[in-house]
């Protein structure tokens, strides 16, 4: 059923685009109620306004915290036009029927982004706004609600085309948008108070449409605030696949305290090394698999200097992330117009991960840490170098798709196998990679993301020159692998912590 708009309540923080809408309402003889700054704005256009105080008989009080929270306002919004008792009560208490509610919300998200002043942030938690929006959306059968300036233009067009009437379908559509606005707002407030366990929501207000998804025929969008994670200093628009790899890169690099450089390809790390100098870390990371590095995503946990930038500039890559760049480095790296350069921020990524699955959402705690225990199960203890490399390898393996094997020597990934359907195949892949680039396996260490179901991996690794192994343990045949290590003077560490990643 169409509803003619005769009355409107307008109370907004943002006045952008409001003038055209107000003038359209005036032309159609709509009675306008308003408050505070919005009232002054409308009066400044030479348009008559009835102050909300005329309905409530109360001025704005408590520093503006209470203006519209009154039965005369909410009764006018929630009153059911087809309910005789509602109509009688509205008449008894002189409550006008409010046909249109135009209300937005205090800029809470913007305030959080602009300041750490808690008092200022708390004052931007809107109370009356969400209440009026929800009330109007609930009563969409009789009331039209506009909760965003993005819908002003559409409403103007509808009022013009339909002679001041709004259809039931249109009112319901506006109501759906309004509930989404309030939901987004409440999520933002929750996440401010619960930084360790933030909620996620498909917020239209934080929707960034991407060029396409994993493939050109797929539409895609990102919901969230990328500016909290990084600042883009240069390059083309970030794609869906870029974002997936960027996430993998940031998750990985935050594991390391020493100067570390890593190369990501399709979310798997294909090169990583820790060195004292950034340029040396880059050189060692690239040497681990220079073939796969082509077109990859690069990440470092130190500032990129000119020397490193000059070396990196020789390779084609999609994205480079770092906490900072020297001025000279930026000049060098910006020589390719499409190359994406991102300055990482110390953002809070929360304690959980989620993915859509079947007809729902799968949520889990993040896989944090490296190991719970350090159980030397071989015939000998690890050497100092082996221990350092085993810790490094275990972290790298944690960020490879299962089944995963990481081979490390001197804090450099020299071979990896990932995404294989058997653990022995993952090891064969890792060994082949190392041999492909003539990397020395003698004295290297091996990390496995899950237990060895048989002793075949230990035997094959030993034959290739591996001297130390790290794995969670827990197989019914752990004894086979442990005994092989004990018989061949090999180090074996059991962590008790599996690192599957699917």
CATH class of the largest domain: Alpha Beta
| Overall average residue pLDDT | 91
State the end-to-end distance. 51 Å
Please state the second-level CATH architecture of the largest domain: 3-Layer(aba) Sandwich
Residue stretches low in confidence (pLDDT < 50, at least 5 long) are none
How many helices in DSSP terms? 18
Helix content: 25-40%
Given the C-alpha coordinates, what overall shape results?
elongated
Reported for the largest beta sheet, the result is:
6 strands, mixed
Structural summary, described in words:
It contains 18 helices and 23 strands. The protein is α/β, with parallel strands linked by helices and 502 residues long. The protein has three domains: 3-193, Methylglyoxal synthase-like domain (Rossmann fold); 228-344, AICAR transformylase, duplication domain (Cytidine Deaminase, domain 2), CATH 3.40.140; 375-494, Cytidine Deaminase, domain 2. β22 (468-471), α18 and β23 form a beta-alpha-beta unit. α12 (278-288) packs parallel to α13. The chain is elongated, with a radius of gyration of 31 Å. It starts with a strand and ends in an 8-residue tail after the last strand.
């Amino acid at each position: 059923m169409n509803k003619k708009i005769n009355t409107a309540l307008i109370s907004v923080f943002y006045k952008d685009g409001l003038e055209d809408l107000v003038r359209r309402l005036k032309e159609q003889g709509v009675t306008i109620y308003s408050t505070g700054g919005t009232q002054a704005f409308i009066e400044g256009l030479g348009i008559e306004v009835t102050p909300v105080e005329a309905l409530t008989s109360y001025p704005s009080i408590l520093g503006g915290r209470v203006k519209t929270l009154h039965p005369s306002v909410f009764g006018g919004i929630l009153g059911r036009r087809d309910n005789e008792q509602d109509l009688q009560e509205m008449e008894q208490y002189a409550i006008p029927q409010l046909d249109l509610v135009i209300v937005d919300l205090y800029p809470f998200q913007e305030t959080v982004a602009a300041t750490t002043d808690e008092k200022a942030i708390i004052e931007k938690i809107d109370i009356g706004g969400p209440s009026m929006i929800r009330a109007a959306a609930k009563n969409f059968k009789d009331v039209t609600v506009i909760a965003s300036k993005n819908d002003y233009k559409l409403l103007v067009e509808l009022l013009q085309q339909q002679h001041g009437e709004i259809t039931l379908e249109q009112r319901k559509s506006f109501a759906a948008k309004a509930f989404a606005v309030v939901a987004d707002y409440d999520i933002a407030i929750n996440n401010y108070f619960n930084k360790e366990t933030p909620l996620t929501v498909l917020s239209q207000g934080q929707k960034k449409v991407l060029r396409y998804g994993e493939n050109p025929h797929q539409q895609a969008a990102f919901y969230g605030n990328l500016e909290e994670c990084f600042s883009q200093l240069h390059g083309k628009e970030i794609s869906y696949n870029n974002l997936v790899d960027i996430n993998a890169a940031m998750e990985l690099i935050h594991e390391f305290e020493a100067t570390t450089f890593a190369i990501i390809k399709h979310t798997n790390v294909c090169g990583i090394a820790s060195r004292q100098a950034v340029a040396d870390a880059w050189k060692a990371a690239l040497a681990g698999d220079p073939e796969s590095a082509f077109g990859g995503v690069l990440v470092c946990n130190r500032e990129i200097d000119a020397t490193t930038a000059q070396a990196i500039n020789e390779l084609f890559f999609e994205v480079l992330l770092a906490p900072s760049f020297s001025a000279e480095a930026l000049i060098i790296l910006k020589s390719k117009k499409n190359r994406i350069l991102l300055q990482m921020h110390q953002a809070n990524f929360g304690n959980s991960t989620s993915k859509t699955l079947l007809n729902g959402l799968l949520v889990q705690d993040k896989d944090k840490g490296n190991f719970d225990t350090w159980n030397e199960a071989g015939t000998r203890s690890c050497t100092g170098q082996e221990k350092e490399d085993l810790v490094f390898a275990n972290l790298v393996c944690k960020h490879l798709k299962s089944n995963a094997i990481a081979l490390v020597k001197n804090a450099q990934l020299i071979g990896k196998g990932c995404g294989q359907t058997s653990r022995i195949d993952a090891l064969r892949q890792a060994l082949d990679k190392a041999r492909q680039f003539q990397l020395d396996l003698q004295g290297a260490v091996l990390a496995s993301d899950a237990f060895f179901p048989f002793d075949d991996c230990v035997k094959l690794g030993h034959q290739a020159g591996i001297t130390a192994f790290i794995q969670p343990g827990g197989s019914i045949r752990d004894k086979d692998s442990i005994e092989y290590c004990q018989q061949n003077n090999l180090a074996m560490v059991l962590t008790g912590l599996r690192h599957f990643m699917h």
